[in-house]
Amino acid sequence: MTTAVDRLLRLVDAEDRYAFSSAELLPLQIEAANERLAAHAQSIQLVRGRVEDTGIRGIGERADLVPLLFAHTAYKSYPEGWLASGKWEMLGRWLGSVSSMPVEGVNLDDVAGIDDWLARLAEVGHFVSCSSGTSGKVSMIPSLMSDRLLVKRNLVHSLAWATGLKPERQHRLFICNPSSNNFRYLDSWAGLDEAFGQEGHEFRFPSDPITVGGVRDMVALRNAIGSGDARPEDLAAYEALVAEREQMMAGAVDTIAETLAASRGEKLIVVGMFALIFDVAQKIRAMGLGRNDFHPDNAMMVSGGLKGADLPPDYREQIMDVFNIAPDRAFSMYGMQEVNTLFPRCTAGRYHVAPWVLLLPLDETGERLEGAPSGEVEGRAAFFDLSHEGRWGGVISSDKIAVDYGRCTCGHEGPTIADAIVRYSDLAGGDKISCSGTIDAYVRGAA
Amino acid sequence: MTAHSPVHAKGVVPVPHVVNGVLVEGDALTYRSRDLGIEFATPSLDLNALAPPRGRPGPAFDLPLSDIVDFLEATGERMDADTNPHMRECVDRAALTNVLPRRVLENLVRDARLYLTRANLMRIVEANFDPALLDGWVPQVDPFGNTSAVRAFPPRLIHVLAGNSPLAAAASIAQGALVKAINLFKMPSNDPFTAVAILRTMADIDPSHPVLRSMSAVYWRGGDVAVEGKLYRPHYFDKIVAWGGGDAINNVIKYLGPGLQLVSFDPKTSISLIGREGFEHAVIDEVAERAARDVALFNQEACSASRFIFAEGSADAIDRFCAKLAERLGVDRDYGSAVAAPTPVELRDEIEVLRAVGESYRVWGRGDGKGLVVRSPEPLEFHPTNKTVNVVTVDTLDDAVAHANVATQTVGVYPPGRSAALRNALASAGAQRVVALGAAGEYCSGSPHDAMFPLHRFVHWMVDEAV
Question: By mean pLDDT, which of A19-23, B90-94, B439-443, B458-462 is the weakest?
Fold first, then answer.
């Protein structure tokens, strides 16, 4: 028997993925939501807790899902001390409470740190993608293999849909990011490579992988320096690491520029972060090369990486100019690490929400649905991703979005999200004074 | 003008100011208070009026202390929301959005009356220093025969007020009055009403009283450089008395320097220590009730409200205690309600996942505002709020002391007799106040607060060695 979830997921690689209006899809989505709720209320402790707190055991309408959604902090709800002191067994039990599959049979002998623990979890089918950990607590996002496969399928078909490129392995793929142990990134890059990239021409970023464990070590060292706990040798080690990393990145820019220049006769797909790709583009320009030297079927998937970078206002246009990238080939997606499905940007510049994801724009507080599911609505982005197997599909974000439920000018159905997305600030705004607080307020630089 | 505008849940609420004792109304500036869910409007600020020049003594500088105490006592007699329309209006507004129910806010207004009595006020002064120092120059002689005279000269103070309790505003106003200061009260966005209501009460008694004319109560958005950059200067003020932490303090810190000092009442995490005696059958019910009282203080908004209970006892006895504690958290009290706001969702998630983690953690309650108890082998890392309490099992209370730090204000102890053996270690760790379990909300008048004697810190200690 085909479940509602199955019927929706058929659309991942269907030609008519965006042929259905949100009103048409809603009954099937509600049915699928009930299937997921029935299963995950049993298998995910945090969902069971929500069901008990709210008394909501079935979804009749979209509003019923709202109290069951997780804040993104759900994937950081473990005691930090367990990670800091390597209490892997306890962390495993925590992970089990936010996963649909129990965490069992993990080999915990002599775990050498978080990277090692993640590898051991993967051996038993738990694929945990961690946030970088550069600021604050590390988010740990569990997935099963089926989730990983969906990420790949969705990315490939979304890119094909948005750019018109065919997954015929005719491009040279340049993933200009250091490798990682984050499954989400690895799967995305592998997916693109397997679908679009010429066999035998995989490009490897010229550096060691940057793993969550590696980043955490740097952060711990930096914090120890800040708090005065570091020894002089630690200081030297930190400075050496920073210098090494800077040198590595500078070297990488040169290598990438040279390799890209050498491949300019080929069809290219350039993937990476804006700051680095911009530097690469500058180098190529300095070689005397530009638009006329590069192939008209080039594409790019470049995003983020703007923090701290000193880019001119037209950085995007400059990159597209150097690599001869047509507007429809500048591929972009909107999403977040807690949600497996990303939404591609169409030729009209809007992100199309996948038919297997329930879009739930909320009010600012995140407690109520904002508006009816028709016309234009603005609100806090929340989603129920019906594809999620390994974890709960419902998440509330900190993004403020402008939604249009109707058919898009690109010709495909919505709901669609406008390109200008901003974050709600974390502070309540207003100068309420609170007399209770923790020792954190007493640590200079901690807040 | 005594007309009172009706209370609106929506629409723009008028927030009048008092400037040097005079009511100022107007709606030139509007603000949004997210905590109150309202927009409110104030008159524009006359910065010159708010910073009286040092060339002129303040109106109360030479007023005898006794006259000041009389005036404060007369104000205290009017601290009753039933009979004082200013206080009724501010309770009406606060009741719409404060975490505390109206009943508790009315209790706090009545407590302000008890605070503003001669006996209490004089005790506060005497605990800080010899009252004669406020009224004149008190002769001193050193061991070498040198003579001088010292005066606790009136300071010029900015008070950045807390908004969680009407009593806090009353206490700040009383303290500012006792030291005869020129006082500028900056109200917070979650209570831009109480300080003005108290000053209007004073105006009803005597609109030209020197104490009243020494006081202004206004609102501006905390951190507004256009205001603070001009007012926070040693030419105009001696000290900034700031409640709370985070941005409230960060906004002030950048203006500190020679001549402008900070007196801060920092954010706190208060705790309880319960010895094994407390889990014995004969007393466990009473101990659970006392523990609950300290946790539920102002629905756990107060700096003195307990958030962590360190329990020295057997696992079974502690669990029995936790069950009773969870029950006692869900009752109405003079300063707390049976149902508070629900535990914030991030906290609830962090607690929910602990339910799955095994026997070293156990949870009672559901975070629905009736109270939530989490028992764990070491302190949890989040900050418990909304009647959430972490019961931490320890081998001995001496081990518990290791968890006290400079952010620890009140330590409730059971049995009270054990406080003597613990208080030095607690002080060394940074804690500031030890009480009997259950008495976190009851104060010995004149006690130091947050490890200082506030009036002593406020005044401008002046010496004349020419006598």
Answer: B90-94
What is the Cα–Cα distance from B364 to B387, expressed in whole angstroms?
A: 12
- CA-based nearest residue to A376, from A404, A350, A409, A353: A404
Chain B contact set for A436 (CB, 8 A): 267-269, 300-303, 305, 307, 383, 385
Q: pLDDT (tens digit, 9 = 90+) per residue, A146-164?
A: 999 999 999 999 999 999 9
Q: For chain B, what's the residue count?
A: 467
| Amino acid identity, position A365 | T
| pLDDT for A429 | 47
CA distance A340 to A391: 10
Which residue out of A48, A94, A433, A443 would a mutagenesis test of the B interface target, given it has the greatest number of B Cβ atoms within 10 Å?
A433
pLDDT at A132 over 50: yes
Cβ neighbours, 10 Å, residue A178: 20
Average pLDDT for residues A96-105, to the nearest whole number? 96
- Report the candidate in B293, B301, B273 with the shortest Cα–Cα distance to residue B438: B293
Q: Transcribe A12-59 into DSSP letters.
A: GG-TTTT-S-HHHHHHHHHHHHHHHHHHHHHH-HHHHHHHHHH---S-
How many contiguous H segments (helices) and E segments (strands) does chain B have? 17, 20
Give the A:B interface size as CB pairs under 8 Å.
Answer: 142
**How far is residue B329's CA from residue B387's CA, in Å, rounded to a whole number?**
7
* Residue A427: HSE in the Cβ half-sphere, 13 Å Cα cutoff: 11
* Region B68-74 average pLDDT: 98
Q: What angle do CA A363, A367, A369 make, to 5 degrees?
A: 55
- Give the CB-side neighbour count of residue A230, counting CA atoms within 13 A: 19
Contact B267, A435 (CB under 8 A): yes
What residues contact B92, with CB distance under 8 A and at least 6 apart?
Answer: B7
Q: Residue B164 — pLDDT band, cuts 50, 70, 90?
A: confident
Using DSSP's 3-state secondary structure scheme, residue A242 falls into helix
Summarize pLDDT for A325-353 with one digit per residue, the tens: 999 999 999 999 999 999 999 999 999 99
CA within 13 Å, CB half, A327: 4
Q: Does the beta-carbon distance from B357 to A94 stay under 8 Å?
A: yes
Task: Read off the pLDDT of residues B394-433 as tens digits, 9 standing for 90 and up.
Answer: 999 999 999 999 999 999 999 999 999 999 999 999 999 9
Nearest-CB residue to A45 (from B222, B352, B405): B352
Whether B403 contacts chain A with CB within 8 A: no
Chain segment A393-445, per-residue pLDDT in tens: 999 998 999 999 999 999 999 899 999 888 886 444 445 556 666 666 565 54
What pTM, to 2 d.p., does this model score? 0.84
Cα B223–Cα B228–Cα B230 angle in degrees, nearest 5: 155
pLDDT band at A222 (very low <50, low <70, confident <90, very high): confident
Q: Quick check: helix, strand or coil at residue A359?
A: strand
Q: How far is A420 from chain B (nearest CA, A)?
A: 24
Q: Which of A77, A427, A434 sits opposite B244 (nearest CB)?
A: A434
The 10 Å Cβ neighbour count of residue A232 is: 7
Would you call B451 an interface residue with chain A, using a CB distance cutoff of 8 Å? no
Residue A427's pLDDT is 40
For residue A407 the two structure tokens come to: 């058919």
CA distances from B60 to A14, A34, A210, B399, B446 (A): 82, 71, 67, 51, 23
* CB B401 within 8 Å of CB B422: yes
Which of A53, A431, A439 has its CB closest to that of B368?
A53
> What is the CB neighbour count within 10 angstroms for residue A276?
20
More confident residue, A135 or B348: B348
Give the full edge-to-edge strand order of the sheet including B270-274: B362-364, B372-376, B388-394, B306-312, B270-274, B410-414, B433-436
